[in-house]
Amino acid sequence: MSDYDVQHNFKLYGLWTPHFFGSHGWADKIFGGWTVSGILNAHTGFPWTPVYNVQVTDASGSSTCGLIYPNSNYCTVRPAAYLGGALNDYSNAGFIRSGGNFPNGPTAYFAAPTIVGATPTAPGVARNSFWGPRYSSVDMTLGKAFGLPRMPVLGENAKIDIRANFYNIFNQTNFVPFNNSQQTIGTLNVNELTGTQTVTSPNGTFGQGLSALAGRVIELQARFSF
After folding, report:
1. Is residue 1 part of a domain?
2. Exposed/middle/buried for 50, CB within 10 Å: 0-12, 13-18, 19+?
3. Residue 4 within any structural domain of the chain
4. pTM of the full predicted structure?
C-alpha cells in the first residue's frame, strides 16, 4: 500500500457573491462587491508500519544495526505477528491519549521476529497496515471590491480589492503523519554468540500524536485596478 494512500477524501467548495443594489449604482460600489468562498477538506489518515529497531552483537562482540551483512544499514524489521487488541479510535482524543490505540504499550500487541545469523524471518505484519490521524480543515476567503468615483485618468472601472484569506479558520488540531519516533516498537537485541534475543526500550510514544500541523493563519491582501 502506498505511503500516501487515503481511503476516504472529501472536499466541499462554496462561493457567494451577493448583490444588494443595482450593479452600476453608487450604493453597490460602496455596500456591494462582497465575495465569500470556502473549502472544507477532510480525509482519513495515512497508513504506517510498526517496526523494531535491531542491534546485532556479532561473533567479535561488536554491536551494530546491520542485518543480512555487516554495515548494511538495514536496521529495522517488521513484527512476526500482530497479537490483536488495539483500539480503533482515529479522533484527535484517541491520538492524544498515551499510547494512542495501543494503551498497554507496543510490546503487548506485536510479537518480535526471530533473527538467525543476522537474517530475519518473514514478517507477519503487512506494510502500511495501520492508520494514522485523520485530517479536517476549513479555509475561507472574504473579499470586498470598493468602487472609486469616475475620474478622467482612471475611468469608471477603478476599484480597490481587499481580501482576507483564512487558513484553518476554526483552528482545528491536525496531527503530523507518523514518523519513526511513533512507529518504532522498541529495540530488538540479538546476540549471535549466545543465540538469544531480547526486546528493550519499549517506545513510550508509539502510536501517539506528537506534533500538529499549523493552526489558524490569516493573510491580508490589497489590489488596485482600473
Report:
1. no
2. buried
3. no
4. 0.79
User: String of b and e for 165-184 (b: at least 16 CB within 10 Å)?
Assistant: bbebbeebebbebbeeebbb
Nearest to 109 by CA among 99, 98, 123: 99
**Grid cell listed for 167:** 487558513
Q: What's the domain count of the chain?
A: 1
For residue 173, what are the domain limits? 9-225
Encode pLDDT of 61-74 as tens digits: 677 777 777 777 78
Task: Report DSSP letters for 103-121, one per residue.
Answer: TT-GGGTEEPPPEETTEEP
- Mean pLDDT (whole number) for 75-104: 92
Pick from 121, 133, 63, 99: nearest CA to 207: 99
DSSP for 130-189 reads EE---EEEEEEEEEEEEEPPPBTTTBS--EEEEEEEEESTT----BPPP-HHHHEEEEEE
